[in-house]
Structures are given as structure tokens and as C-alpha cells.
Amino acid sequence: MHTLNLGIVAHVDAGKTSLTERLLQTAGAIDEVGSVDDGTTQTDTLALERRRGITIKSAVVSFVVDDVTVNLIDTPGHPDFVAEVERVLDVLDGAVLVVSAVEGVQAQTRLLMRALQRLRVPTLVFINKIDRAGADPGRVLRDIHRKLAPAAVAMGTAHDPGTRAAAFIPYGPADDTPTPYDPADEAPASYGRTDGAPAPYEPADDAFATRLAETLAEHDQAVLAACLDGTPLPYGRLLGELTAQTGRALAHPVFLGSAITGAGVRELTRAIVRLLPVAGADESALASGTVFKIDRGAAGEKIAYVRLFSGSVHVRDRLRFGRDGEDGEDGEAKVTAIHVFERGSAVPRPALTAGRIAKIWGLAGARIGDTLGAPRAAGRGRHFAPPTLETVVVPRRPGRGAALHAALARLAEQDPLINLRHDDIRRETSVSLYGEVQKEVIQETLAADFGLDVGFRETTAICVERLAGTGEAAEFLGRAGNPFPATVGLRIEPAPPGTGVRFRTEVKVESVPLYIYKTTEDFRAAMRDTVLETLDQGLRGWRVVDCTVTVTQSGYTSPTSTARDFRLLTPLVLMSALRRAGTVVCEPVHRFRLEIPADALGPVLPVLARLRAVPRTTVADGPACLLEGGIPAARVHELQQRLPGLTRGEGVLECAFDRYEPVSGAAPSRPRTDRNPLNRKEYLLHLSGRA
User: Fold this and answer.
1) CB burial class (10 A; 0-12, 13-18, 19+) of residue 349?
2) DSSP letters along 26-59, please?
3) pLDDT, tens only, 633-690
């Protein structure tokens, strides 16, 4: 039995969850198709998901087609919950991107396709809702070619679109049970024939065969030569090359249908197991996997959702977990139970083998993104921009601050990008956000799951600080004003945008207290951790990015100096160097793409100007107008609210994080949550416990 780990991704309301239900029913995993509106689907299990009719958390279900177990992961479509998609991408063998035949290619559709292509995830496209009034599959296909993937290959056409009788008519021979082409065969295998003879094209198929060959010729010299010679290729040969190029994420077969009526879903189901590659499974290698989801059981116990890439894991095994090449402590724990996804649900099993997905109990310290067992050859990367907004969560009843912080910590465990920031001085907790809908969901979840009634302060943009120049400072052991028996010198310099914080040391080994740190690498790691923690709050309280920090001085007196002395002195020195360098506060800017009626351009432009949006291109296309440019992240929500009234409901806005730009006017500050090493007196008073 082979395994295929499949993601279903789409813009919100394109029909992902409905398609998941129909795939399960078509494969025989469920008897009846659940309804998103009625809250009876297999994957939207949260009460909040059922009330709102949207997917908030990714969910895993399983079904079997032929000899392939398909683990299907249904992901959220709303951009406020893109973090859930982020965690799933690294565990997929293939994906189905769902596009609505009515709304077409939307903002999140583009974002998702770019991420899938960057990761080379083999992807099929399903144009859903061909039965809906207003469905225009032809227009959507053109948009897919133009906006998503030039190598998209329509595998059929829609019959009677826009009506309840809409159907998918596949191209090629009438029999839709293909035998894939195998180059090792003496002759190409047939498609739709049982007598072994190559299947002839119907007249209507000639055009499809030509289009398919032209698409495949881009990456296959033999097909290109046949196209140039005018030599027709057997259908089996073309399908074989299509399978190969789909598996390498070079081609993207497109199917059409309706998850509600079932049109086209049977053909899509067969294509999933024939065109997408199954999981690689080296069970003889060391166990290595990834945690992509954390949940809690009925008794509050932690459950880790794991994709295993190699080896095997058994109940009662002791399993290492941690972050490859990232800060954070590794851990080890005993596996107490394993539930493997198969045939419609997760069932108890004594072991998890390579290529499969399971729920694992016992890993109490595991976090989302942790590697289990041996490190993977390729580390995780970020596929979407981090949140650019934040807000302070406020309990409406006095004395509930501690309970609120504990509840938010539980939510952050399941969504690390909530990124809690607790201010011990003001006793406040802030959370990071992608948008206002996410804030509403956090509010409802805290009320329903933890009995906490909360409100929010105004949502603000998360700025960063970049260096204006180079700064250097040092504190020397025994000198006046230095209360610590240690010497630390640091230099901080600007680095190119997007390079992050780089750390170096220029000190001699004899200046490192090896009786404390054992090795110079331990000293370097300890200093780096303190520097990174300190740079989380710059001169105006924002995280300092894109710089190089170098340790230029180090000194100690044995046996008086301790690791604590270096840890507490470093922030004072670093902030002195940062003050001398100076920083520029930069706000997040989103790129926007705005389609509006041409006659709405006049009312829209002044609003864009008031929101500090800068259109860089304006293209008129008959009755429509396309504007592209940049807008501060903090103003996107207001534009979304104003747009329907300005464009009679016809405006379409796409936004995604693009860059950070210096703030114009007065630079905003963020309240500090640390001991404030910018204020030497306050910092030392805090350390002495007198503040």
C-alpha cells in the first residue's frame, strides 16, 4: 500500500471543504456528503468553524483509492489563517488548488500558487462551482494561464456551465480508466483500450493532443522534436510525460466540476492517484519527521501531528525533538500512543512508518515546526510573510490577567505566529495578527474554550528598526560605572535588507572564560542568544533587523566572573552601541492590486492618497481599470471597508506583504517590556530588585 499526503488549498469560499467531503464520499470513506452550512463536515470540527462556515484549523482525513492511501489535509482559505497553511506545506507530496468558476483567481489563490511553485509541490487545479449561476470556466482557465501557471493543462471542458446539469467532459477516449505510460514497456501503454492497441483520437481530441504536446515540449526534447516534425504521438506517451512533468511541478493538469453535485470529482480522484507522486518511504533509515500541528485531547494532553519522512517510530520509543539550526532547547520523550491515519480516520497502531501521517501522544514539550528524530537534510523555510499587525488583549473582568495569559499561551502553542508579547511592567499581553477576522476568532475562542470575556486595543502595525550607521561601545572590568566583573565590547553595523541579524566574534581565546563556557563555541552561542534577545527591542521598542553584531572585547577575572555577569552586561553595551549607530523606524508595506470600474477611478484615487497608498501603475482596459502599488499595512483594513461603497461592490483588492519602508513623519514607539538597558539607572535598579 502506497501513501500520498495531499493538501487541499484555496482562497476562502472556493469550496475546499465541500470538495474534501465529496472526495471522501467518492472514495467510499463516508456514506453521505456533509454540509459546510449545516456544520456536518468531517474536517471543520471546531464549533467556531461550524458557526462561521470557514476553516480555521487544518485537519487530516484519509481515504483509499486503488492501492494508495491518501492522507488529505484540508487547510484554511482565509488569509488571516495563512499560518495554518504555512505549517502544512512542508509535509505534502502533492496538492489540489481549488479555484471558483464564479470568482476566479483571487488574492489568496495567487499567494498559494506561488508558494507551491517555490517548493516544487506537484499540484493539480480544480475549477469548482461550474454549476453555479455566473460560472465562466473559459474565463477562469484564461486567468489561470495568465496569473497562475502558463503550463496549466485543461483535461476536459465544462458542459452546460452555470446550470444544475453542468458536467465535466474529459478530453481523450471515452473510457476514463487510463493506463499510465511506462517507458520501460516495448510500446506505449494504451489509454482507454483493453486490447493493448494505442487509443485513437476522436476528431475533437486532436486539438487537445496538440495543445498538450506543445505544453509538454517546453521540458521534453523528444516531444519538441515530434511537434516540429508534425509527428502525432500516442496518447499513452503524452499521458506518461504529463505524469512525469506533473510530478516535477512543471505542468499543472486542470479539472473542472462541482463539489456540491459531484461533477468531475470522480475524474479528479483518479487523477490524484495517477498523476501525483506517492510518498518516498525509506523505512531502513533513521527516523526523521516533522511536527506540523499541535492539538489537545479531552484530558488536556498534548497531541502532535507528525509526518514521518524516513525510518519508523514505535510506541514506547524515546524520541528526540527540537529545531534544526534554530534557537530553542531540544527535548526527548517517550511515545505513549500512535494513531495512524488510514481508511477514513486515525486508528491506534503500534508503529508509524515512513511516508505516513499520525497523531502521537507523549511528546509534552514538542512544538510546531520541531524535527523529530534525526535532522532532515533540508530545513524548514518561511513560505509566507510573518504577521504585520498586533493588538493588546484586555480582560473585561478585573483580576483575570493571569488566566488570560495562560489561555493565550495555549492558543500560541497551536499557532506560534500569534507570537505572545507579555509586558510584566504594565501586566499586558499583545498578540500578532494577520487581520481583523483573526482577532474576532481569538475573541470567540477565548470565550468559548476558556470562559474569558476580552476586548482589544486598537490594532497597530508591527514596525522594525534598521540601523542608520555603525556604532561601537565597551564596558571594561574594574572601570568606574561597571558593576559587573566582566569586559564586553560590541560593534553593530548595517547589513543588506532581508539578511537578518548576523553575529561574529573577534576576541582571542585567552580572553574567553573557559572555566565558565567550556569551549569558545559555547561562549559564542551564549553571547549570540543575549544579543538576539536584546535586539528584540531597539531604541524605540521595535525589533532591530538586518545588522551585523561583532564581539570586539572580552575579559574576566577568575573565579569571580560568571555567565550571569556577561549576560547582564551585554544589553548595556549593545544599547550604547545602538544609540551611537542610530536607527530608522520602518513600517510594513503591502503591495496591492486593485481592479475597479473605470468610472470609479476618480472617487478611489483621493481615498488611496488619504490612506498613504501609492499607485505605481494604472492600466485602463475598456470598462475596467487596474491599479498596482504599495499601501501601509495598517491602512489595508480601512481600504477593504471603503472599497465596496466606492466601486458599487465591483472592486477587487489583492494585498500581500512586500517590504519595510521608513516611516514618514514622527516615528512611532512601542512600550518596552524588558528592564530597559537604554536607561542605565533604571536597568541596574531592576537588577537589584529596588525598582
Assistant:
1) middle
2) HTTS-SS---TTTT--SS--SHHHHHHTS--S-E
3) 989 989 988 998 999 888 888 888 889 999 988 999 998 888 899 999 889 888 876 4
Count of positions (residues) in the chain: 691
Buried b (16+ CB within 10 A) or exposed e, 413-446: bbbbbbbebeeeeeebbbbbbbbbbbbebbbebb
- 359 by DSSP, 3-state: which? strand
Cα(334)–Cα(307) distance, rounded to whole angstroms?
17
Q: Does residue 254 contact residue 142 with C-beta atoms inside 8 Å?
A: no
**Torsion angles phi and psi, residue 218, rounded to 5:** -60, -30
Kindly give, in sequence order, each residue whose CB lies less than 8 Å from that of residue 89, ignoring residues fewer than 6 positions away.
Answer: 7, 115, 116, 119, 121, 383
Residue 156: strand, helix, or coil:
strand
Distance (Å, whole) CA 140 – CA 137: 5
Which set of grid coordinates corresponds to residue 586? Answer: 520602518
pLDDT value, residue 40: 55
Beta-strand ranges (E) seen in 442-582 are 454-456, 460-461, 464-467, 471-475, 486-494, 501-505, 543-544, 547-556
User: All domains of the chain, ordered by start, with CATH?
Assistant: 2-173+250-275 (3.40.50.300), 288-373 (2.40.30.10), 389-462 (3.30.70.870), 465-581 (3.30.230.10), 588-662 (3.30.70.240)
Half-sphere exposure of 122 (CA within 13 A, CB side): 22
Q: What is the CA radius of gyration of the chain?
A: 29
**Closest of 444, 440, 435, 433 to residue 407, by C-alpha:** 444
Task: Identify each DSSP E strand in 386-509 by its residue range.
Answer: 389-395, 421-423, 428-433, 454-456, 460-461, 464-467, 471-475, 486-494, 501-505
What integer pLDDT is reported at residue 537 of this predicted model?
94
User: Residue 609, CB half-sphere, CA atoms under 13 Å: how many?
Assistant: 6
Q: Is 39 exposed, middle or buried (0-12, 13-18, 19+ CB in 10 A)?
A: middle
3 bridge partner residues: 69
Instruction: Assess contact for 510 and 501: CB atoms under 8 A.
Output: no
Give dist(CA 386, CA 198) in Å, integer: 52
**Averaged pLDDT score across all residues of the chain:** 84
Residues 255, 257, 259, 263: is their CA dihedral positive or negative? negative
Taking the C-alpha atoms of residue 380 and residue 277, their distance in angstroms, rounded to an integer, is 21
Distance of alpha carbon 683 from its chain centroid, rounded? Answer: 38
DSSP string for residues in 570-607:
HHHHHHHHHHHH-EEEEEEEEEEEEEEEGGGHHHHHHH
Residues 6+ apart with CB under 8 A from 451: none
Rounded Cα distance between 647 and 596, Å, is 6
pLDDT, tens digit (0-9, with 9 covering 90-100), for 355-377: 899 999 999 888 888 888 888 76
